[in-house]
Amino acid sequence: MNITDRRRILGPSNAKPLIFEKPESSEQEVQQPQEKSNVENESMYIKNGLVSNANGSSYLELKNGELSEQCTILLTSVYGPRPSRGAFSSKASLSVQFKEVTIEKIPSGELKEICNFLSNIFSAVINLERYPKSGIDIFLSLVQNPTTSDEGNLQPIIAACVNGITLALADAGIEIFDTVSAGTYKRNVVAFSKNGTEVVGLWKDKEDDTENNILNVIESCKESYLKNRKVIIEYLIRSRDADI
Amino acid sequence: MTDSIELRPISFHPDVLARIAPDLSMQRHLSLGLRPSLRSFEEFRNVEISDGGLSFASKSDIDRKGNNILGSNVLKCGKTMVVTSITGGIVEENISGSYVDDESAESSNGADRLSRFGQIYPVVEVERGRVGAPTDEEMTLSQRLHDCVLHSGLIPKKALDVAVGIRSTDSEGSSSILYPDEEESALSSGLKSRRKWTYVLYAKIQVFSRDGPLFEICWNSLIYALKTTQLPRAFVDERTADLKIPVSMRGRSATIRETFDIICDASKFQPLRLNEENVAFASNFAIIDIDPEAELPKDGDEMQVDQGSSVLLADIQGEAEEASVFSTISVISSESGRLKHFKVVGGSSNASIENLKKSLNLARLRASDLSAKASNGAR
Amino acid sequence: MVYYAQSARSAYPGQLICPSYELEKGPDSQKVIRYIAGAGVAEQDYELNGQNILALTATVVGEIKFDEKTKEAVPSAGVAEPKEGEIEETVSTEDEKHYIVSVTDKRQDGQAVNADFANNLPREGDIVLARVTRISQQRANVEILAVENKTTPVDSGVGSNGTGVVAAGGGSGGATFSVSQASSDLGETFRGLISSRDVRATDRDKVKIIESFRPGDIVRAQVISLGDGSNYHLSTARNDLGVVFAKACNGAGGMMYAIDWQTMIAPSTGFTEARKCAKPF
């Protein structure tokens, strides 16, 4: 810490972070729930419109397996279309920001990559021509993240982000071409649109060792995509009907 | 087609009026005996709290890798949601006296009292769809929270002391940890007296759906989070327990003391002991003058509002109130009425003694309500 | 089964609504039905059963509506060049119909104001309410607060970003430039300008901005163009456009009311000030 941040109250500079004793039995036990988490035990809780000062927002709670502690909580808010400054543009510009609310575990380089990946997907999905001279900003807040840093597997989070953004955009009433969703398989995330006939994004982790056949990966991801998509659409239709 | 011309005054939808002329919208509401939020004048918003299951101590299953949250709280007040997480660090206090840190400098200035109390270092972030440096509001909030915690004497300094245990490994390779306060046995008390560590507490406060002044909401959330805070037991390994390395540098010899690796016990923790009588909750009030000019035309005398020319509003919320109110009161009061913080901004309205008294009373009632919630939530 | 006759359904983004062309077979004639994408609907290439078709899909959550459109109102491009051979044969007997397909949220129908600002950005012709922020000899700068009879943006304003003068907690987020450049630089509201030639319809060259607007006034104005990158261009050259709310003495005095189209009076003091007022009726 060489530059002092005068805008925040930082506390004593010689403080050291808490180091917890490493449990010895970690290796096997930690791996197992991840293997299980793929399709069958996953459950999703959705609530739209929690953030009142955003144009649209979604709250996603993903439970991997039966353990209630293993829970990913993601809050997505969409701001805009807001005025953008500078040159006239006939289309909206899109930005995606990702932030961890409680514990910061993901290295910032990876965060940038995720944001890039997501904004590429949604630039293709949002009907940007409808919103001239404006910017649409998407903010992702990861409230709880059960995975640990050293494993570095971000796929469940990326998939949750895609689903969360789609829900938030639908809540905001921003025009999107399709209910985009993502499915995961091992270390891959694939985002589809048009009922799985088009791939809009593919995230392949560097540590992926087993699967080399890309088509197989896509097929496996599609399975979980279709499931996610169904849940999202059901929620959108149901919550709308309930409101009327 | 008839030729009649319909004369219709321009009228605006309430939402539009609230945006273009918030003060007018506010006055119209007040003249009806209501506030723009449709609450009555002295009505507070309901508060829901939970610990959110974020902290490591709240988990039954131990997968504590990377989770160093010691206490947490999720508070919902109306639509506003505050997520507070308390993390910690350990700092070694130098008790040799050669180095005077900020706090002891302060205490020598006559603020003796403060040196007995612990601090917390809060960072407030308000989600508002922007990135970049913290805003004024975030900075002032953090500073106010920090100052109020320190000055209210909420955390006794003793509560932050680390009772360092020693892990000893016997000849068979099995290790055991001894804590000074658990076993009065032959634990080397020498270490304890020579070295002193204290916990440092950080709070990260994330606000969603900002809908009015935040200090009070953040404060309450912080208090709730502190009440759930558990400090892990910490120990040092016996093998590294006491090392001194003599070095000589440019002709001068000095003794560098080995910095210990303090390791936290992942299974043992104790609650942070707060000064219970200093636990207090915050509430805010606004004083606003009723402008007779802006009142809606009355149908009959029964609509007459029997208020004086200025009214006290509890728990400021919404754009119309925030933008048209210039006189505010912020109170941190305990259940029993012990005042911890009191701030009045005079503004343009008359902050009369009656209004101040009334606000203090309401703040006390509010505090007892909130503190009842804490004990319910703690279970 | 023709698509436009179907009962109203709920739609989600990406849902197929109908193809862009359809042939309706009556007992003795054939009609070509053309569907045009309206609000909340987009035309896309869609692969269905191994075949690529041009179809209309929903882009928001809401209810599907079909509105018949008279021929004149439709751009004639589609009429001039029939695409399929089949249609060509029946040109002589064809009766073409046009439907505008839109997806709207039922909750927000019939409301004067809805929360859906996203799809109601100011457009040419819209009436907006704006606050004057700065005046000069040539123009008045304004910030657009609301599109009239449509909506107010939810994600701007004091409540969400803490701008403005706020006593409690010192929330002056956007007010100080040096500290929070990000927010004040980007701004939270759409800006516009009213050039002196657009203040009123007559005597355009003699308009003095200072006698028409003051900073802080709320102005009802019409969007004449999307303008450049930063400003919408607005006009008040109509009887029902102009200042609707103003305070006397640059905001220090009380509310003023229009007594004619260029004078406002403060009832509490009796002072009058010059403004370009909107007709209050």
TrEMBL record, chain A:
<dbReference type="GO" id="GO:0005730">
    <property type="term" value="C:nucleolus"/>
</dbReference>
<keyword id="KW-0963">Cytoplasm</keyword>
<dbReference type="InterPro" id="IPR050080">
    <property type="entry name" value="RNase_PH"/>
</dbReference>
<dbReference type="GO" id="GO:0000467">
    <property type="term" value="P:exonucleolytic trimming to generate mature 3'-end of 5.8S rRNA from tricistronic rRNA transcript (SSU-rRNA, 5.8S rRNA, LSU-rRNA)"/>
</dbReference>
<feature type="region of interest" description="Disordered">
    <location>
        <begin position="22"/>
        <end position="41"/>
    </location>
</feature>
<keyword id="KW-0539">Nucleus</keyword>
<keyword id="KW-0698">rRNA processing</keyword>
<dbReference type="GO" id="GO:0000176">
    <property type="term" value="C:nuclear exosome (RNase complex)"/>
</dbReference>
<dbReference type="InterPro" id="IPR001247">
    <property type="entry name" value="ExoRNase_PH_dom1"/>
</dbReference>
<keyword id="KW-0271">Exosome</keyword>
<dbReference type="GO" id="GO:0003723">
    <property type="term" value="F:RNA binding"/>
</dbReference>
<dbReference type="InterPro" id="IPR027408">
    <property type="entry name" value="PNPase/RNase_PH_dom_sf"/>
</dbReference>
<dbReference type="GO" id="GO:0034475">
    <property type="term" value="P:U4 snRNA 3'-end processing"/>
</dbReference>
<dbReference type="GO" id="GO:0071051">
    <property type="term" value="P:poly(A)-dependent snoRNA 3'-end processing"/>
</dbReference>
<dbReference type="GO" id="GO:0071028">
    <property type="term" value="P:nuclear mRNA surveillance"/>
</dbReference>
UniProtKB/TrEMBL annotation, chain B:
<dbReference type="GO" id="GO:0016075">
    <property type="term" value="P:rRNA catabolic process"/>
</dbReference>
<comment type="similarity">
    <text>Belongs to the RNase PH family.</text>
</comment>
<dbReference type="Pfam" id="PF01138">
    <property type="entry name" value="RNase_PH"/>
</dbReference>
<dbReference type="GO" id="GO:0034475">
    <property type="term" value="P:U4 snRNA 3'-end processing"/>
</dbReference>
<keyword id="KW-0271">Exosome</keyword>
<dbReference type="GO" id="GO:0000177">
    <property type="term" value="C:cytoplasmic exosome (RNase complex)"/>
</dbReference>
<dbReference type="GO" id="GO:0000176">
    <property type="term" value="C:nuclear exosome (RNase complex)"/>
</dbReference>
<dbReference type="GO" id="GO:0071035">
    <property type="term" value="P:nuclear polyadenylation-dependent rRNA catabolic process"/>
</dbReference>
<dbReference type="GO" id="GO:0035925">
    <property type="term" value="F:mRNA 3'-UTR AU-rich region binding"/>
</dbReference>
<dbReference type="GO" id="GO:0071038">
    <property type="term" value="P:TRAMP-dependent tRNA surveillance pathway"/>
</dbReference>
<dbReference type="InterPro" id="IPR050590">
    <property type="entry name" value="Exosome_comp_Rrp42_subfam"/>
</dbReference>
<dbReference type="GO" id="GO:0071028">
    <property type="term" value="P:nuclear mRNA surveillance"/>
</dbReference>
<protein>
    <recommendedName>
        <fullName>Ribosomal RNA-processing protein 43</fullName>
    </recommendedName>
</protein>
<dbReference type="InterPro" id="IPR027408">
    <property type="entry name" value="PNPase/RNase_PH_dom_sf"/>
</dbReference>
<dbReference type="GO" id="GO:0005730">
    <property type="term" value="C:nucleolus"/>
</dbReference>
UniProtKB/TrEMBL annotation, chain C:
<dbReference type="InterPro" id="IPR039771">
    <property type="entry name" value="Csl4"/>
</dbReference>
<dbReference type="GO" id="GO:0005730">
    <property type="term" value="C:nucleolus"/>
</dbReference>
<dbReference type="InterPro" id="IPR019495">
    <property type="entry name" value="EXOSC1_C"/>
</dbReference>
<dbReference type="GO" id="GO:0006396">
    <property type="term" value="P:RNA processing"/>
</dbReference>
<protein>
    <submittedName>
        <fullName>LAQU0S05e05710g1_1</fullName>
    </submittedName>
</protein>
<dbReference type="GO" id="GO:0003723">
    <property type="term" value="F:RNA binding"/>
</dbReference>
<dbReference type="GO" id="GO:0000176">
    <property type="term" value="C:nuclear exosome (RNase complex)"/>
</dbReference>
<dbReference type="InterPro" id="IPR012340">
    <property type="entry name" value="NA-bd_OB-fold"/>
</dbReference>
<dbReference type="Pfam" id="PF21551">
    <property type="entry name" value="CSL4_N"/>
</dbReference>
<feature type="domain" description="Exosome complex component CSL4 N-terminal">
    <location>
        <begin position="12"/>
        <end position="68"/>
    </location>
</feature>
<keyword id="KW-0963">Cytoplasm</keyword>
<keyword id="KW-0271">Exosome</keyword>
<dbReference type="GO" id="GO:0005737">
    <property type="term" value="C:cytoplasm"/>
</dbReference>
<feature type="domain" description="Exosome complex component CSL4 C-terminal">
    <location>
        <begin position="121"/>
        <end position="226"/>
    </location>
</feature>
<dbReference type="Pfam" id="PF10447">
    <property type="entry name" value="EXOSC1"/>
</dbReference>
